[in-house]
Amino acid sequence: MSIDLQQVAINPTGVTPLYQSDAHSIYWVGVAEESAFRCNVYLIVDGDEVILVDPGSRAHFAQVKERISSVIDPMKVTGAIVCHQDPDVAASLLDWLALNPAIKVYTTPRTHVLLPYYDIEYDYVDVEENSEVTLPSGAVLRFIASPFLHFPGAFTTYDVATQALFSGDIWAALDSDWSLVVKENFDSHRDSMDLFHMDYMASNVACRGYVKQLDGLEIDAILPQHGSIIDSKFVKEAVDYLENVRCGTDLVYPEFS
Question: CA 165 to CA 96: how far, in whole Å?
Fold first, then answer.
């Protein structure tokens, strides 16, 4: 079902396919902007289920909607996975729900407490720790808790069919010399991840706790909300990075770590 991510290039006029089959596909749908803090929005299409992963900010809603329209009617979006409540992740829910009030929002109770402050009402699907959703094709989405990376109620989403891990802010990177997929030099990408993780992630304890949950999981690609996609040849290095990175309170209070 997969394609060679090293050969993927952004389609400037529409969505960029990452994985495709007749029954189950994943697309990158934005955001094209000249910013080291650029955001990624992903789309899962599975039969009648069309699910946004971290739908993004209101500033980019029109662009993401236009990209999606090249593959499917945006009014047919049925769901949104929201890994935490920050505006770069979730603010466009106001616009998506105006387009289709029946959209289901998959998130945790801690995020659900805060999302109504965007002045929205929605069909809430409680993402319990390590729960799963089965899509029409039989593909399974598994939700993996990632507490304090960086929000207490954060979580990631593992697509069992493609072995793709939608990681939210985990493995995010800040990079002005951006490419959609990490290419040849993972060492320089590690520096770009440091710029994000050192400031935003809580601690190495939180990182190691999350890595422990990934034991035995086959990961073909890591799809973060910021920075570049990490394909299979760098997944082990990425996991090793997260297990060892010092960040957050490790750096603020080194005498206690």
Answer: 24
The number of CA neighbours under 13 Å toward the Cβ of 4 is 3
Rounded to the nearest 5 degrees, what angle is found at the Cα of 78, between the Cα atoms of 77 and 82? 95
| Helix (H), strand (E) counts: the chain | 8, 13
Average pLDDT over residues 124-132: 87
Amino acid at 165: L
- Write out the two tokens for 133: 């959703």
Nearest to 108 by CA among 86, 92, 84, 91: 84
* Closest to 16 in 3D by CA, of 48, 50, 40: 40
What Rg, from alpha-carbon coordinates, does the chain have?
17
Could you list the beta-strand ranges (E) of the chain: 16-19, 25-28, 42-46, 49-53, 79-81, 104-107, 123-126, 132-134, 140-145, 155-159, 164-168, 221-224, 230-231
Asked whether the whole model's pTM tops 0.85, one would answer yes
